[in-house]
Amino acid sequence: MGSIALIIALHVYAREVPLNYVLLAAFTAVQALTMGCVVTLFEAKVVLEAAVITGIVVASLFAYILQNKHDFSVGYGCMGSLLMVLLWAGIFQIFFMSPAMNFVINVFGAGLFCVLLVIDLGQIMYKFSPEDYICACVALYLDVLNLFIRILQIVAEANK
């Protein structure tokens, strides 16, 4: 709940210079605490493998954006719908608890967050103004974090 409130505050006060840094630091601290709790549920080898894979994927997508000057922002509407599908699939997964469905949701989520990362990187490089650095930072952070969580779950399932 604190993360959501901080994200809203970050968007409202994105250009208020001293306050936006404080809010970004608070958001980062809350996310670090949350991720610290999440990764303790997995073996160190799995976390390291997921981190390396995430780093490679992010670097590859960044290289792709540097080479292609296409406008990927047209995908935002579709991404909203696909995020809702992911949300509802996660809610159904709570009740049905199928390992196969969990794997499908994680693969779909990883692909979705890769596409979102490409869209957000394109926006940052070609559309955002320099004053939008806080929103850009939060968007990238959330894309990479969500991608890492999905890859972490996929790697953990593959290592069982």
Automatic annotation (TrEMBL):
Pfam families in UniProt: Bax1-I (PF01027)
Record field: transmembrane: 21-42, 48-66, 73-97, 103-121, 133-156
Q: Name one GO cellular component term.
A: membrane
Give the superkingdom in one word: Eukaryota
Q: Where in the cell is it found?
A: Membrane
Name a biological process GO annotation. negative regulation of apoptotic process
Q: What is the recorded name of this protein? A: Bax inhibitor 1
- What is the organism of origin for this protein? Caenorhabditis nigoni
Name the gene that codes for it.
Cni-tmbi-4
